[in-house]
Specification:
- By secondary structure, the protein is an alpha+beta fold.
- The protein has 3 domains: 15-107, 2-Layer Sandwich (Uridine Diphospho-n-acetylenolpyruvylglucosamine Reductase, domain 2), CATH 3.30.43; 114-224, Uridine Diphospho-n-acetylenolpyruvylglucosamine Reductase, domain 3 (2-Layer Sandwich); 228-432, 3-Layer(aba) Sandwich (Vanillyl-alcohol Oxidase, Chain A, domain 3).
- It contains 15 helices and 19 strands.
- It has an 8-stranded antiparallel β-sheet with strand order 15-12-14-13-17-18-16-19. Strands 5-6-10-8-9 form a 5-stranded antiparallel β-sheet.
- A hairpin with a 5-residue loop joins strand 8 (178-184) and strand 9.
- The chain is globular.
- It starts with 19 loop residues before the first helix and ends in a 13-residue tail after the last helix.
- The relative contact order is 0.13.
Length: 470
Amino acid sequence: MASGDGPASGETINPDLKNPDQLANKLKGHLHGPVLSGDHQLAAYATDFGGLGYTKPALVVKAVDEHDLLATLEFARTMAIPVTVRGSGCSCNGQSLSNGGILICYAGKQGPISITDDKSAVEVLASQRWQNVDSALRKQQRRIPVLADNLSLTVGGILSVGGYGIDSLVHGPLVSQVRRLKLIRPNGEVLWCSEQQNTDLYRYSLAGLGQLGIITRAEVNTVRRSRFPVHFSRRHKNLRELVQSLEGLRPGPDKGPDFFKAFQARGKTVSVFGRYTDSLKAARSCYPGPAAEQQGGYTRLIAPWHRRGRSLAIKLWVARYGPARRLWSDFLVDYHGLSVLVDVIENLRRSGDFDDCLKSIYILAIAKSGQSIKLPLEASSGFSDPVNFGIGLYSMIPRNDKATLARTQKAVAICLEACLATGGRPYLYGWHEFTEQQQRQTFGADYGRLQQLRRQGDPDGIFRAAKVLS
């Protein structure tokens, strides 16, 4: 069921939803956090970061703890009301929107982090934002191995989609760093899940769009924090030249850089790679290596606060475009698929299909997970190469320009077809019209197993089906 659609076939919507204020009063007495109703209070929850849809829930529960989550789910089961879960609301495809049901907002609640004795892992609340986790770990001289660029996202939100960043070249997706997670299923079960315990719930919850329940806590690996990361930047003539320069990353990160990203924006095509060092002296004496030096044309930057700097830079960049519709789509492909997809993108740009709305193209290198088990819904899990690539297309579309929106959506659909044809996958965080047939072909038996787990944990059918994998 697409976000903003009516109820799925067979889903019962309680007629009491016509009187949401009365429902709110019934629910308030059972919760520690507030319950919102009324058009004015609900307006802020009627859209998400992408801004492509507008649909209001009947109620918003601002859950502050597991008690609130369990009580709300019990209320929803009793009253036959559909439930949607929202973190920071940064979804691009309406995944965190509710059409007339209960929207559980589980974000912003902070709490102490619990780091293991050997400092190799940390347990955190899923409602926390990564910027708070990163700040707390800084005091321990530790860091999460890989984080998305936007640190204002919640722990649970990122674990539900995958999580990639400049450190993915070495550490793969963020979800591959999760040792265990605590899951509340729609039927009220509360379970710890890991590779050894409730294994399938662990495997299908990570990067699974929150379809099996609400992640409330997670234990995530940490690594030693480097004090002085060194960035080397190089300009390229175009995307084609950039892609050609990336072939050397395919064998794996053993002898390559410690981190990598590339982008094309505002007339510049730039690749950035670097090393982690522990002293200013080591940073100043750090060089990119013989191959890069032979190519020449690079610049060096020592950036101790680079994670926070990237997060702030993204916020400022987004703010430049005001209240635009943000049609953001990402694809994960192997090196061959990246080459094919770049050609498709360039042809679409030349023909005007992206108009002037495609403001940025972003490329990451992603190492295969070192886990002993596969995470079926994590987008990079289906590749055989040691290192594969994510490419993001970030379009900003004037809010009332329906023709440009339709044209851009058609262009992205063509990119999705090209991605799938090369054996790639879309990143489920972004905007895609990923049909059921395409999903079945892409995920195979994992598609059926996911549906089975959903039915087992949600016999009352209260959990709203996700925008994709539905």
